[in-house]
Amino acid sequence: MALSLPAHPDPLATRLHTSGLLHELTYGLGGPFHYLLPERFDTNLAAFRSALAGARVEGRVYYAKKANKAGVFIDRCATAGAGVDVASLGEVREALGRGVRGEDLVVTGPAKADALLRVAAQQGALVAVDALDELNRVLTLGGPRPPRVLLRVHPPAQPNSRFGLSPVDLDEAMHDCAEAGDHVRMEGFSFHLSGYDTQQRTDLAGDLVELCLKARVLGLQADRISIGGGFAVDYVPADAWKTFLERHQPGDYHAGKTFTAADFYPYHSPVAGADALAAVLAASPYGAGPALSERLREAGVMLLLEPGRALLDEAGASVFTVQGVKDRDGYGIVTVDGTSLSLSEQWFNSEYLPDPQLLSARPLPADHASYRACVAGASCLDSDLLTWRKIAFPAQPAIGDLLVYPNTAGYQMDSNESSFHELPLPPKVVIDHPDDTGRPRWRLDR
Asked: What would the mean pLDDT of 387-403 be, rounded to a whole number?
């Protein structure tokens, strides 16, 4: 019996899928595409801001642009006055060109190029400094205004992380900033944590508040901290996820491929998105004393955060057309008109697990039966599978049917896309819903 992992019900997506628009777009665009729902981005941004307000914490949300290359989400940031987290000159240009102010950018990433540092300083962007040599380059930039910096702290709970300044380097960096005087604005501290442990974020954020107080003794501004991203997204129901982890085995996958639980993103999370931020703020650092929210208020420290995936929750999906079906040893191999390069998880020796939805181009017969199949890409690589798992489709897919992979806007759509075989990259289609009953309208993301 196939293990099912359906995505959470989404009435907006269901309306779109039953409108006939996706088949029209497939015909008009002539290949696979991604659709985007920017109103969902607005909703998620509002939820994060509400969590800050509910905790009575002054804060700022920066959208981590690396999570999706679409311009429409940057447009939404400019309209809503949100910040953008960037890590390259190209991302800086895109944000500025779409109306985001320079002072609303935070520049992250290690070992930044001199050109990126120079433009960031000129535009008044906030720069997360990752190493002493990078700080030295910042301090010698010159220019019309002092560069704004955060000092990134190496996380003690993740000693193998390659990001951040060690305690010794951090102390040296603070003194270097103090000696630089008005030539730099050292506004606070930041960190990068892998994973989704909310208590780890609370603990390290508490440490950064104390560092702000220490830095002020040196005459530094130090009035804000950034806790980065790492706010989980809840893709599938708890029971389905629990059953899957307990029962999945090599026979559930094409060619007996093996995965362990550690290979997968945690597709169910009981505390996700803005609720995870609320949990970080409500907890006490190291489980003792006042909550983090109270410590931030008492110290007069602003909280910055850089969610990517969590701002894109349910903000888009990926659509492929069935090009062929092959029966193979008790299950099928469905080949679609794209490649697994458009579902990035597959290229990290992992699997994007939420079930793709079959949208048939024809009425299904009354006696149709479930059909187990994996999903392959249209390349000549044996390993090019969008889904290794044998999905229980409601009927055997046929040429011209659509497979819709749900909730792929966060990191899946374009992190690893490539025009392999000279196949065009799937375009992004922005879907606008004028009201609850009107037919959805579409436009290409530019």
From this structure: 96
Among 13-17, 259-263, 331-335, 434-438, the least confident range: 434-438
At the topology level, CATH places domain 38-234+269-308 in TIM Barrel (3.20.20)
Which pLDDT does position 421 carry in this prediction? 81
Residue 188's beta-bridge partner residues?
150, 224
| 101-118 pLDDT per residue, tens | 999 999 999 999 999 999
In this structure, the strands spanning 428-432 and 33-36 are parallel
d(CA 374, CA 253): 7
What distance in Å separates the CA atoms of residue 408 and residue 428, rounded to the nearest whole number? Answer: 12
11-37+314-444 matches 38-234+269-308 in fold? no
For the chain, domain boundaries:
11-37+314-444, 38-234+269-308
| pLDDT, tens digit (0-9, with 9 covering 90-100), for 197-254 | 999 999 999 999 999 999 999 999 999 999 999 999 999 999 999 999 999 999 999 9
pLDDT at 435: 59
**Tokens 């659709």 sit at which residue?**
35
For the 11-37+314-444 domain, the top CATH level (class) is: mainly beta
